[in-house]
Amino acid sequence: MVTAIGGPRVLLRQLRETMAEPLASQERLDKIVDLIAANMRADVCSFYVLRDDGALELFATHGLRRDAVHITTLRLGEGLVGLIANEAEPLSLQNAPEHPSFAYRPETGEDPFFSFLGVPVLRAGQTLGVLVVQNSERRVYGEDETEALLTTATILAEMISTADFDALVKPGSDIDLRRPRMFQGIGFSEGIALGQVVLHDPRVVVTNFVADDTDAEKGRLEAALMTMRVSIDELLNSGDMQIPSDHRDILESYRMFAHDRGWVRRLEEAIDSGLTAEAAVERVQNDTRARMLRQTDPYIRERLHDLDDLANRLLRILTADGSVAGKELPDNAVLVARNMGPAELLEYDRTKLRAVVLEDGAATAHVAIVARSVGLVAVGQAENIVSMGEAGDDIIVDGFTGAVHLRPTPDIEATYIDKVRLSAKRRAHYAALKDTPPVSRDGQRIALLHNSGLLADMAMLDETGADGVGLFRTELQFMIASKMPRVKEQVELYSEAMRLMGDKPIVFRLLDIGGDKVVPYMRSTAEENPAMGWRSLRLALDRPALLRTQVRALLQAAGGKPLRILVPMVTEAREYMKVKRFILRENERLPRLGFAQPETLEIGSMIEVPSLLFELDRLLPETDFVSIGSNDLIQFLTAADRANPRVANNYDPIARPRLRALKLVVDAAAKYGKPVTMCGELAGRPIEAMALLSIGMTRLSMGASSIGPIKEMVLGLDVGALKAEMNDYLENGETEGSAREFLAEFAERHSLPV
């Protein structure tokens, strides 16, 4: 076994001193490999860096020929060095030339060396390079030497990530850490955004790597672990977590990992090698992440996020970093996160935010809906982008295709600049249609309305020429407020929204919170399935004071003008009737309180719970209008959680069973002479909008950016011909092909822009 001189702690102190010296980058790197070779009694110490073209380039060496530096390269997977980089695992050999992966490079002069120890240089689980020591004698490198070299590699990983290291890179190439990467996600909202990465939950940056007192560092680690375990136990014992839920399952995973003796032992061993407690956490998590990323078992890969979050919690305690997402943004910020709620998104300065990219999520999740509402480009399911991205990185988000380009090359950037110009031309084309009534080729007038929720959205009415607001989501005001909005504050919002509308209609949906629409100042009980739990109307009926406050604010805000109120998530007709009577009583009180009653008061029901489909004959005579919430209705009809990316896209919302269900509502509304509006995400996409028109729907409410494309499609459509063909398709269960295929073929035959 090779015996190191002074041990790893001495080496780390020497490296710390070298890093602080005023040396040129290559001179510093040369001195580092000399120090490692001397400390480990090695004849050779070499440092290879992974380039952006997949080649491992020799950046520094002690013992091999110096003129081979920046000349010798090995492909990823080639030779022992390439094998280590590919598998992210250490490799110790007594006779390296006998290994089947050994690759000889004559220009290095490595002929006489037999014993070999190589370790990967990792950052965030990503291989940045390989550090190697060799000896001419056939020796065995033991666990202590491997641990010492891995610890040294942690320091080198940070050195590679600094801007000073760029001076060593040849012109025209770059290191793999900064190479361009493309992530294929799913577009949540259309558009293209070019900007800079802003991490929603920034990683803790470790700056102190070398321990002066290992016993003290172990004490710090033990105290931090205890603090973290206590905080997790307190969360699990709180009232919110007594019912089984996804949140509780995650915390249970955290607790299991936090008490795992193997994990704690590895942290302590890293400290014994000379690292500080926080550097040990980063070192162990790097190794763990590298191994888990290379696993094919999806369960193991899913646990990676739990371990990342747990390590980050521990780092925040050790570094006393209590920071949360920073709200100071560059002018072209692109928010990158694993996942986030809609309220968190609304906390950012939307004048500087261009796009949001998530590792998780689904197109119908509320954060995606809010992103569309405020005009942000959004992409989800961009796997692993949080770990690969750095704050300030250039990024391009393509909401049309779901592609995200991190650190894009100049040619890709130029291509997207051209696409942005083309997109601007499309917007100009749609803007030219704003005063053109959306009348189909066969003379049917289709009402195109906005979904909204913020006053900032309202200005887009003039830009799109929409007929009004078919859905004003009143909950957004509650989600962005730090405390419950008072009656006066609500009145001001609703009054201003009506003023901005002018003579155009606006439909106010009553408060729809719960599920992933979290209101921070309202305590709620954790639920196993929040989407089907205590939310929306159910919450409002149990909190009559909350409902009363909002209804009074809406009635007062009308100031004698027409008022339309929409009741969300009605499960049974009796619930709607209860709320209707409540609203009418409050309306009767207005004159006694000195307020004018609305000129007209219309009360409608959302149809988004399947059981209501079987009470339409009871419900419709009591309503003034109805609106379909396709997002919830489709997820309940298919038993597929719209926020779960595994199942959210498994069932086409316009497949024959769902269209038949929607047609039930349209036909019943026609029977009772009640207007019906589609307010879900279906209305905002041309093919889906065609499906809705084909079953008799004539009122569509959507995001502002969808008005132009839908209007252009309507202007070229013969609705009567489409309805005739669709009726045959729906009634003939033997017809082959999906509704989407049928509609796409119809659009192609009639040259419709979809």
Detail the topology: elements first, then pairings:
Elements: H1 7-20, H2 25-39, E1 44-50, E2 55-62, E3 73-75, H3 79-87, E4 91-93, E5 115-123, E6 126-135, H4 143-160, E7 181-184, E8 186-189, E9 192-199, H5 214-237, H6 246-258, H7 261-272, H8 277-293, H9 298-319, E10 333-337, H10 342-346, E11 353-358, H11 366-373, E12 377-380, H12 385-388, E13 394-398, E14 403-406, H13 410-431, E15 447-452, H14 455-458, H15 460-464, E16 469-473, H16 475-480, H17 487-501, E17 506-509, H18 536-542, H19 544-558, E18 563-567, H20 573-589, E19 601-607, H21 616-619, E20 625-628, H22 630-638, H23 656-671, E21 676-678, H24 686-694, E22 699-702, H25 707-715, H26 719-731, H27 739-749
Parallel strand pairs: 9-10, 10-11, 11-12, 15-16, 15-22, 16-17, 17-18, 18-19, 19-20, 20-21
Antiparallel strand pairs: 1-2, 1-6, 2-3, 4-5, 5-6, 7-14, 8-12, 9-13, 13-14
Architecture overview:
There is one protein chain. This protein is α/β, with parallel strands linked by helices and 754 residues long. The protein has four domains: 160 residues, Beta-Lactamase (2-Layer Sandwich), CATH 3.30.450.40; 107 residues, 3-Layer(bba) Sandwich (Glucose Oxidase, domain 1), CATH 3.50.30; 106 residues, Enzyme I, Chain A, domain 2 (Orthogonal Bundle), CATH 1.10.274.10; 317 residues, Phosphoenolpyruvate-binding domains (TIM Barrel), CATH 3.20.20.60. 43% of the residues lie in helices and 16% in strands. It is built from 27 helices and 22 strands. It has an eight-stranded mixed sheet. Strands 21-20-19-18-17-16-15-22 form an eight-stranded parallel sheet. Helix 8 packs antiparallel against helix 9 and helix 13 packs across helix 25. About 1% of the residues have low confidence. Its main location: cytoplasm. Belongs to the PEP-utilizing enzyme family. Its EC number is 2.7.3.9. Its cofactor is Mg(2+). One of its GO terms (molecular function) is metal ion binding.
